[in-house]
């Protein structure tokens, strides 16, 4: 069994932002197993020729002593309409668990929307697969209460592209627009969508 995983982007044979995934792997491994990793995240990763042209999703599942690697083609989905949905205060996804049953159940209830925007304790967190970033007319703001601290989010905070701030559910429509980011969705290339497309019903 592999309780945790990392999702990375292979971009024309190159693993994009690998160092950020390795950092999270080390932190998550230590949090779960209470000691330093006994191996490196990319130890057994080999990118064969058929994965060296185009964009691919690299999933590395791992446990205390081993990894499992899967690679598949990736096409960026057009996610523009979000349904607001709340989870119980006790729900925790602070590590990238392979058990996503609660999140998958929420996603299945998105109705006519493309994804769900998850609310916890009245605060905005993430969608089912992305961190969210809001535009206030001057700056790009990401909620300080994510379910999972994504690697793209961490990198964009570090380089000053985005800022972190508490965002309550009631604040959503004070923003002009949003973007959805993760390891495979680059901040500067994903769609910018008006917050009118975030639906609470």
Architecture blueprint of SSEs:
Elements: E1 4-11, E2 14-16, H1 18-33, E3 55-62, E4 67-73, E5 82-87, H2 101-108, E6 115-120, E7 123-127, E8 131-135, E9 140-143, H3 151-158, E10 163-165, E11 177-181, E12 193-194, E13 198-199
Parallel strand pairs: 5-6, 5-13, 9-10
Antiparallel strand pairs: 1-2, 1-3, 3-4, 6-7, 8-9, 8-11, 11-12
Describe the model:
The chain is built from 3 helices and 13 strands; from the N terminus they run E-E-H-E-E-E-H-E-E-E-E-H-E-E-E-E. It is globular, with a radius of gyration of 17 Å. The protein is an alpha+beta fold and 201 residues long. The model has no long low-confidence stretch (mean pLDDT 97). The strands form 3 sheets. A 5-stranded mixed sheet has the order 10-9-8-11-12. It has helices at residues 18-33, 101-108, 151-158, and strands at residues 4-11, 14-16, 55-62, 67-73, 82-87, 115-120, 123-127, 131-135, 140-143, 163-165, 177-181, 193-194, 198-199. Helix 3 (151-158) links the parallel strand 9 (140-143) and strand 10.
Q: Estimate the helix proportion, in percent.
A: 10-25%
Q: Order of strands across the biggest sheet?
A: 10-9-8-11-12
How many beta-strand segments? 13
The separation of the N and C termini measures 38 Å
Please count the helical segments.
3
Average per-residue pLDDT, rounded, comes to 97
Give the overall form: globular
Uncertain residue ranges: none
Largest beta sheet, briefly?
5 strands, mixed
Order of helices and strands: EEHEEEHEEEEHEEEE
Radius of gyration: 17 Å
| Strand residues, percent | 25-35%
- Helix/strand-derived category reads alpha+beta
């Amino acid at each position: 069994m592999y309780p945790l995983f990392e999702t990375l982007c292979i971009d024309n044979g190159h693993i994009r932002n690998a160092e950020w995934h390795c950092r999270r792997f080390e932190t998550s491994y230590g949090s779960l197993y209470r000691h330093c990793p006994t191996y490196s995240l990319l130890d057994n990763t080999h990118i064969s020729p058929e994965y060296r042209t185009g964009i691919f999703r690299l999933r590395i599942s791992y446990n205390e002593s081993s990894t499992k690697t899967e690679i598949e083609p990736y096409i960026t989905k057009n996610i523009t309409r979000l349904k607001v949905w709340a989870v119980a205060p006790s729900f925790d996804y602070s590590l990238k668990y392979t058990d996503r049953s609660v999140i998958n159940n929420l996603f299945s209830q998105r109705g006519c929307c493309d994804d769900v925007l998850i609310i916890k304790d009245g605060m905005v967190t993430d969608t089912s697969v992305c961190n969210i970033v809001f535009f206030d007319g001057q700056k790009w703001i990401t909620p300080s209460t994510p379910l999972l601290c994504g690697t793209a989010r961490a990198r964009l905070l570090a380089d000053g592209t985005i800022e972190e701030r508490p965002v309550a559910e009631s604040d959503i429509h004070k923003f002009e627009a949003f973007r959805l980011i993760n390891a495979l969705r680059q901040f500067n290339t994903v769609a910018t969508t008006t917050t009118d497309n975030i639906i609470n019903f």
